[in-house]
Amino acid sequence: MKTVSLKCSNCGSSLDIKPNVTNLACGYCGTSLIVEREGGAIHLSEIGERITSVREGTDRTAAELAIRRLNQEIDRVNQQYMLLQADDDGGVDFVALAFPLLFIFVCVMVLFNLESLAWWMLLGIPSLAAAILRSIWNARCLRRERELAPHFRALEDEHDRLQMQLEAKLKIVSDE
Questions:
Q1: Is a pLDDT exceeding 60 seen at residue 28?
Q2: Which pLDDT score, from 0 to 100, does residue 72 have?
Q3: Which of 49, 52, 65 is nearest to 173 (CA)?
Q4: What are φ and ψ of residue 2, in 5° steps?
Q5: What confidence tens digit (pLDDT) does each residue in 91-113 have?
Q6: Strand pairing partners for 17?
Q7: Which of 103-129 are b and which e, b meaning 16 or more Cβ less than 10 Å from the residue's Cβ?
């Protein structure tokens, strides 16, 4: 094998390259070079270019992995949010509750022969019971809402943070 003479890609000075050399530094400007041999051709490239190429590939791969992880985390946060909503939902239909109460009241009147009571009580007591239950339920709902509000806010904040990270990673992947 013979020595090949090539020019430095930085300063243009002539460099003699022996067959077993894979990398070298230019004796004139100090640029680190890699000797690339492909298909019988030999050429020089700067190590900095190769490092930049490797860094870009690594950044892209890291961004793609981060996108996958961030999507999974966003799904987890969304599931927690839905579970919290499901735990927060669920109410009582007090109009529907009034009819069984009315039925129970009529049965008690018939069983105990309380026909002498005024008929206005027939409608008033179940309605009053439903109103009391409704106010108890509303107080419970308000208390539960105050308890859950910080959890909802925390999940919303985490979702927003993850979404911003995801958008940044998607930009990295789409720019390359």
A1: yes
A2: 92
A3: 65
A4: -110, 165
A5: 555 556 666 766 777 676 666 66
A6: 4
A7: eebeeebeeeeeeeeeeeeeeebbeeb
Instruction: Report domain extents, the chain.
Output: 4-39, 56-175
| 0.70 surpassed by pTM | no
Q: Which pair of tokens denotes residue 25?
A: 């530094």
| Dist. CA 153–CA 144, nearest whole Å | 14
> 3-state DSSP call for residue 117?
coil
Most confident of 110-114, 134-138, 148-152: 148-152
Sheet holding 41-46, edge to edge: 23-25, 32-38, 41-46
Given a contact cutoff of 8 angstroms between Cβ atoms, the answer to whether 27 and 13 are in contact is yes
Between the CA of residue 43 and those of 23, 29, 125, what are the distances in Å? 11, 18, 98
Calculate the average pLDDT of the chain.
Answer: 78
Beta strands in the chain (DSSP E): 4-7, 14-17, 23-25, 32-38, 41-46
- Comparing CA positions, the residue from 24, 17, 25 lying closest to residue 41 is 17
